[in-house]
Please model this.
Amino acid sequence: MNLKIVFEDTHLLVCYKPAGVPVQSARVGARDCESILKNYLYEKNPQKGAPYLGLIHRLDQPVEGLLVFAKTEEAAADLSRQLQDGRMKKSYLAVRRAVDKSTKSSSKSVEDCGKTVKNVENSVENWIEITDYLRKNGRENRSEIVKAGTSGAKKAVLSYRILEAADGRELAEIRLLTGRHHQIRVQMAGRGTPLIGDQKYGAVSENVDIVDKLYPALCAYRLEFLHPKTGKSLTFQIKPENPVFAPFHFG
Model:
């Protein structure tokens, strides 16, 4: 099994999903998280028959990180409520191209798209909140930043802080306040700071290593929620496996 079980009890299961593995797939026989975990649960207790596995949230196929699944319908209902009302907190780490201070592309993006940016110094202690309006292009499986009021546009909000910078790259911690299609990748690229390795939203420069091009440097590294049965606060945290993160220090 190419997933790592981080935590499991009779109510839920937390796992690490590697980049490149889909959470769910319509293709018969696909090696997605849902089918892998159902097979795992069945093999543990074949006498119980087909196991229940509730899908609570998703990660894009190229993104690595933590996922929680419910093992009972009651746990699924409770965890879904936590996701909807904001009690479930998901934090991401990303490596992006550093801001090019010689251009005004970032500020132009802010003006054109109606974003609001807090006027705080970008340090470990402070967070920057950004707002965009995104429209999904289903045919090309991508999203784009558009003006407020555009048909099909949805408001997208996240906050981030820069933890470390080195060699023209920045390690950012990100918290999503909305869950839009490719949101982090689109909003970072919209400021002229695309994620390293993101060939869909950021041009890959000639001096980027081949390994950097495999997947966007994005990891859902921290997951917080309340246990659906006991109400106990649970926090899980991992280190990204993408080698692009290796030069940075965190954890």
In short: Residues 91-213 form a domain with the Pseudouridine synthase fold (CATH 3.30.2350.10). The CA atoms of residues 164 and 249 lie 8 Å apart.
